[in-house]
Amino acid sequence: MIYGEIKDLAQYKGISKNLDTAIDYILSGKYKDGVVGKNAIDGDNVYFNHPDYPMTKEIKDAFFEGHKQYIDIHVVIDGEENLGFTPNPEMKLTKEYDAEGDYELFEGEVKNFFHLTPERFVMFFPNEPHMALVKVNEVKKIRKVIFKVLV
User: Fold this and answer.
1) What 3-state DSSP class applies to 98?
2) Taking the alpha carbons of 40, 105, 143, 84 in that order, is the dihedral positive or negative?
3) Residue 126, SS3?
4) For residue 148, which phi and psi values (nearest 5 degrees)?
5) Is 44 helix (H, G, I), strand (E, B) or coil?
6) What stretch of H or E contains 21?
7) Percentage of the chain with pLDDT > 90?
8) Using one digit for the tens of pLDDT, what is the confidence trace for 16-65?
9) Cβ contacts of residue 138 below 8 Å, gap of 6+?
10) 3-class SS at 19?
């Protein structure tokens, strides 16, 4: 997991070709013009999902998910959200891995929260359970994208 300022993303280049593609795209700011749904950058190697103004939620209504094939990079365009994280060994698997959707679900106690604003990002690697869309102060709609980077 990596959390930081978008302006500093370039320091993570060199880990993989696909991650470099995603970083360059994020730094270009083009994701702000994405359409609702899936936005291809390099086929299924690198793309981003743009949900239609998702609503943040109370922590009791949120859930942990993990992936095995893709790195997730969460970027907020408008608004703010908290993302929860707990190391995998401390989680209880509640839904077995779905290879087609590249996800599995977990339950457990949030050990860390990362506060996302339009200036920040958080990157979760495979097998790092995370909880998205947790409210900051109050429940509200935000605008965000989630980059999917094939490992």
Assistant:
1) strand
2) negative
3) coil
4) -115, 120
5) coil
6) helix 17-28
7) 100
8) 999 999 999 999 999 999 999 999 999 999 999 999 999 999 999 999 99
9) none
10) helix
Query: What's the N-to-C CA distance of the chain in angstroms?
Result: 14
The C-alpha R_g of the chain, in whole angstroms, comes to: 14
- pTM score of the predicted model: 0.96
C-beta of residue 116 within 8 angstroms of C-beta of residue 80: yes
Edge to edge, the sheet with strand 46-50 lists 2-5, 120-124, 70-78, 143-150, 46-50, 37-42
Q: How confident is the model at residue 70 (pLDDT cuts 50, 70, 90)?
A: very high
Confidence of residue 95 (pLDDT cuts 50, 70, 90): very high
- Residues β-bridged to residue 56: none
Q: Tell me how crowded residue 141 is: count the other CB atoms within 10 A of its CB.
A: 11
Residues 64 and 83: their CA atoms lie apart, in Å, by: 10
Quote the CA–CA distance of 41 and 47 in Å, as a whole number: 5
Q: Is 32 helix (H, G, I), strand (E, B) or coil?
A: helix
Selection from 18, 41, 30, 32 nearest residue 149 by Cα? 18
Of the pLDDT bands very low, low, confident and very high (cuts 50, 70, 90), residue 4 is very high
**Average pLDDT of the segment spanning 75-85:** 98
Cα separation, 103 vs 96, in Å, equals 8
